[in-house]
Fold this protein.
Amino acid sequence: MAETGGPGAAEPSIAAGHAEVHERCPFDDTRDFEDAERGFLGTAEEPVVRGGDGAAVWDLAAYAFLDQDCPDTASPSLWRQSRLVARHGLFEVAGGVYQVRGFDLSNMTIVEGDRGVLVIDPLISAETAAAALALYRRHRGDRPVSGVLYTHSHVDHFGGVKGVIGQEDADGGVPVIAPDGFLAHAVSENVYAGTAMGRRAAYMYGAALPAGARGRIGAGLGQTTSTGTTGLIPPTLDVTRTGQSETVDGIRMVFQLTPGTEAPAELNIHFPDRAALCMAENATHTLHNLLTLRGAQVRDPHVWAHHLTEAIQLFGDATDVVFASHHWPTWGRERVLAFLAEQRDLYAYLHDQTLRMLNEGMTSLEIAEALLMPPALERAWHTHGYYGSVNHDVKAVYQHYLGWFDGNPAHLWEHPPAEAAARYVEFMGGADAVLRRARDSYAAGDFRWVAQVVNHVVFADPGNAEARTLQADALEQLGYGSENGTWRNFYLTGALELRDGPVGTPTVAASPDIMRALTLDQLLDALAIRVDGPRSWDADLAIRFRVRDAEPIDLRLRNGVLIHTTGTTPGTRAPDTEIALAEADLRAVLLGDADLADLAAQGRAEISGAPDTFATLLGHLTTPDPDFTIVTP
């Protein structure tokens, strides 16, 4: 077990498991390392990317320790993947196609046109994106950005856009291209459940863990997330159909829309003049998430497999290199086709076999333990579960079709965790008896059971220091043994919080740019989510916003629900208050950037009726907690 107050060594059973991985996996296959080095032109001279306040937002040198041999505190398979992903610099992919890799969780791709460059997926933060573009320009010249393309609606593919262009550039004609539905999905995912997602993402990417052999070694898809300034410039050109072709600065592109795959709005891009295919995040060097551990809508592997087949059909005969917004490219038509086909088979197998087993009456937990991947897929490094995993992807397929309930009525109305924990501990003879037996299980190497059973003691008595220490030790061993980078980060962050207390959430889900991109409907929906229902049961408030050059918007708080409507709605009562103002001022008020009373004093808002109704409404709202507890009640 760990010495009090810090991480410990790997237990013998974990080391033995790593030895078995060495025997089972083809570590003598070095093609990925050759591909990850191919086309290398150079990297940044300054290893630390800093924000305007001088704080580090990304450290290129943080993972230099991965060059040493893998210790027992890490899966050798994950260590190998992290070494590959941590390789940073500017790389040539094909004629006129370059990638900056290792400067954030994702890659930034730069395609040279007639006079400038098209930037694809400008990372998470403006600071890392600017550093990536500066590296490209140092090697290829100071070419202007003549276009930006977002492959999909996750923040690591658009958040750094203001590091490569400004809003004035887009307003001045620089096209910003995205798949149909991008904006709605990009903003809603980061707002509606953004606080909870951000909290869990802190665990998933291990942002609070120190980089090192006993801490953060990577998240499988990338090393971690940068912590700079996140922004958004709305698209000016939508891709609405597969086969749509666009030319930007002489760069010809043919698009394939892939909704329902890795993101609800996503596309692949073929560059016919360069025989190059960008697969966005639909085919990378890992099994991906069907339900990411930070939380999201469940992804459909059946649809995912279909779109991979379609990509092969559309572009396979005209592609010599395939690359993505994470990891490294694959060259050679035969290898490209094999890579895409194996990725397709991966998702199809997970889907079909999970359905076969659930139709035989197996539950998600049972299927997750029983399902084994075909040996041919298991031998391919890029199918390993470094980011997604077979275990939690199976549960996602089950959830997609059947939901959370496994059909056993004993699970239909269980006690919540803290209440159940107190009963479990009492039934098992008290905390001392549970911990005594759990230490025996720990010594036997059954860390999964230790984590499961000691969790009850922690939730029954969060102040039990012995239970917290043993739980932290068990989670730590599970992290050391995980091939999956996000599982490792979850386990080790849980251990860190049990030992040291809450570590906070270093990232903000909804940046000001994302909030400003919300429609009025979305802003009002986001407001409704914050209503304290029980405290508002007896409230009955009605407000009408008269927005210039638009239909009036009626807000009604009643029965603990905030509803907004436009136009005529039967049953709508006369408002307590009417407020006339410009849409920009209404948006500022709803975002908290402006005070309604101040606007009225400036003559920018006219309030008639009860003057304090809107302030009363704001009093019924709650503020989300970005640092809520996870491993304790």
Q: What stands out?
A: Residues 295 and 457 are 26 Å apart (CA to CA). The chain has 22 helices and 21 strands. The longest strand covers residues 540-547.
